[in-house]
Amino acid sequence: MSFIDTHLVLLPIATPLVGAMLALLLRRWGRVQAYGAAGTMGLSLAFSALLLARVITGGEAVVLQVGGWRFPYGISLVGDPLSALFVVMSQLVLCAGLIYALGSKDAIIRYPPFYPLFLLLSTGLTGAFLTGDLFNLFVFAELLVISGATLTAASDDRYGTEAAYKYFYMSLLASTFMLLAIGSLYVSYGTLNMADLAGRIAARPDGSLTTAAIALLMATFMIKSAVFPFHFWQPDFHAAAPTAVSAMLSSVVVKVGVYGFLRMTTLLFVAQAPLIRAILLVLGVVGVVFGGLSAVGTHNVKRMLAYSTLAQVGFILVGIGWGTAPALMAAVVFSFNHSLIKAAMLMLAGYVASRAPVKSASFDVVTGVGRQLPAAGVLFFLGGLGLSGIPPTNGFISKLLLFRSGIEAARFVPLLIIGLASILTLVYVIRSFQTIWWHAPPAETRLKPTGDSLVAPALLIGLVLLFGLWAEPLVKVASDVSLWLMDPALYIAAVGGTGG
Questions:
Q1: What's the CA angle centered on 160, arms 155 and 161, to 5 degrees?
Q2: Cβ(64)–Cβ(3) under 8 Å?
Q3: How big is the CA angle at 448 (ends 446 and 450), to the nearest 5 degrees?
Q4: Measured at the alpha carbon of residue 85, what is the angle toward residues 479 and 286, in degrees to the nearest 5?
Q5: For the stretch 304-334, what's the b/e string if a residue is b when 16 or more beta carbons lie within 10 angstroms of its beta carbon?
Q6: How far apart are CA 352 and CA 448, in angstroms?
Q7: Residue 159 DSSP SS3
Q8: CA-angle at 361, arms to 357 and 363, nearest 5°
Q9: In this model, does residue 434 exceed pLDDT 60?
Q10: How many Å is the maximal CA-CA distance in the chain?
Q11: Cα–Cα distance list, 76 to 6, 178, 213, 369, 435 (Å)
Q12: Most exposed of 44, 284, 439, 444 (fewest Cβ within 10 Å)?
């Protein structure tokens, strides 16, 4: 077998990491550094797509025991259907983020550390999905936090430093919770390899500190995904971050928590999963309602979209909470589709702000600005359809699958609540579209002659339409993911079988 075959699960992590080092060496040559970073991200996405194709067509996980250590003593990298799909999802959006950065007018884009930090963000996110070890999940998540906080602190926005501090300290709290959970599980079971840990917990689910570890991990992933009531840092953070960064944070970075909940309920804590799912269901329903109401009442386009993420993640948690194979499939499809839609919408908000007289996404500033930006209006309208779950977009597919799974599971009360709360999405999307593209601007409004590029959001909106009109491939992959998740023995056997 070739090096690529044997290390396929490592390449999506190593490529952006090496690219970050090279980008740092190229800091004196800005355009070379920028296009090199974009090329690196594209290469990493190609490796990720190859990994997903291998996993789906082969019907089994791709596993690498790093350093040749025998299972379960070394570090396992695991490309199973769930992690491979989430890596493709994240790196697809990250590629779009770098394309947006190439055409952005933000001052931070010209800072030599921007592209190395962006590639480190990709390394942390990809590693968090592909690691088979809880402690290394913590390490990759910390790399993600450091990169994201630094990029936000250097934002053009005057509130960037404040937002970065909020994110950093909330993440520090999450890190403390996770370390305590890791310690509790190690004391109880003597291992942190997720496959080995899952087998030991299944054999002895009443470990002395198991309940404490579950509570701590839930708090960790709730903070990571800004789930109610740990959501309060998110609107400030995403509104102040540079657009190329906020589009990543509010679309794919929040999926780390979603990924964690999926692993908790389908692999690590199967015996305790009914209680965990019941909690996630309640939090998901509350998040849909609270996020929608908050988005309706906010005064800034980016803050509106940040609160929208709280609501959209709520839909995903509802699917995880129902826990059936169709509901898990719907949650996976929803996660993928939301990443594309939300990244595109935030980029469009950044584009409008870049053309406004004062660079701001406040409704007071961008009122009527869109009248001279018809192309952006068409893209925003289509993205709004996707966010609202209206055909022919991928958002419609997401909600159709989720609502159908709720009907099959006979969960009519939460289904009714989230169905009615979905109307809120239409309210704030229509309100923002009317404010920016229909209302007359103040007489003294003068748009800047140039602004950010529309290439990246146009590409993402194209994918939003593509996966709405031709949803079968994504739904098929998500179905394979859900069937894999329903049988944790497959993951345990795939990783444990590499140790001989």
A1: 115
A2: no
A3: 150
A4: 75
A5: bbbbbbbbbbbbbbbbbbbbbebbbbbbbbb
A6: 10
A7: coil
A8: 90
A9: yes
A10: 75
A11: 13, 19, 21, 51, 51
A12: 444
Do residues 417 and 335 lie in contact, with contact meaning Cβ atoms separated by under 8 Å?
A: no
Residue 243 amino acid letter: T
* 284 in any annotated domain: yes
* Residues pairing with 77 in the sheet: 64, 131
Nearest to 256 by CA among 87, 135, 50, 48: 87
| Residues 239/334, Cβ–Cβ less than 8 Å | no
| Contact between 247 and 343 (Cβ < 8 Å) | yes
Tokens describing residue 423 = 């109307």
Element (H, E) at 167: helix 160-189
Measured CA to CA, the distance from residue 288 to residue 225 in angstroms comes to: 14
The tokens describing 500, both together, are: 């001989």
pLDDT interval class at 242 (50, 70, 90): confident
pLDDT one-digit tens code per residue, 44-96: 999 999 999 999 988 888 998 887 788 888 889 999 999 999 999 999 999 99
Distance CA 48, CA 122 (A): 12
Cis peptide before 392, with omega less than 30 degrees from 0? Answer: yes
Q: Which two tokens stand for residue 444?
A: 């003294």
Is residue 496 a part of any domain in this protein? Answer: no
- Domain range holding 75? 3-489
Indicate whether 498 belongs to any domain: no
d(CA 357, CA 355): 7
- Residue 495 inside a domain? The answer is no
Positive or negative: CA dihedral 236, 242, 244, 248: negative
CB atoms under 10 Å from CB of 377, counted, come to 18
Dihedral of CA 463/467/469/474: which sign? positive
pLDDT digits (tens, 9 = 90+) for 390-418: 999 999 999 999 999 999 988 889 999 99
Q: Which residues have CB under 8 Å from 271's CB, separation 6+?
A: 201, 202, 205
End-to-end CA distance of the chain: 18
Q: Which two structure tokens, joined as six digits, stand for 206?
A: 């009443």
Tokens of 41: 């991200």
The model carries a pTM of: 0.94
Which residue type sits at 202? A
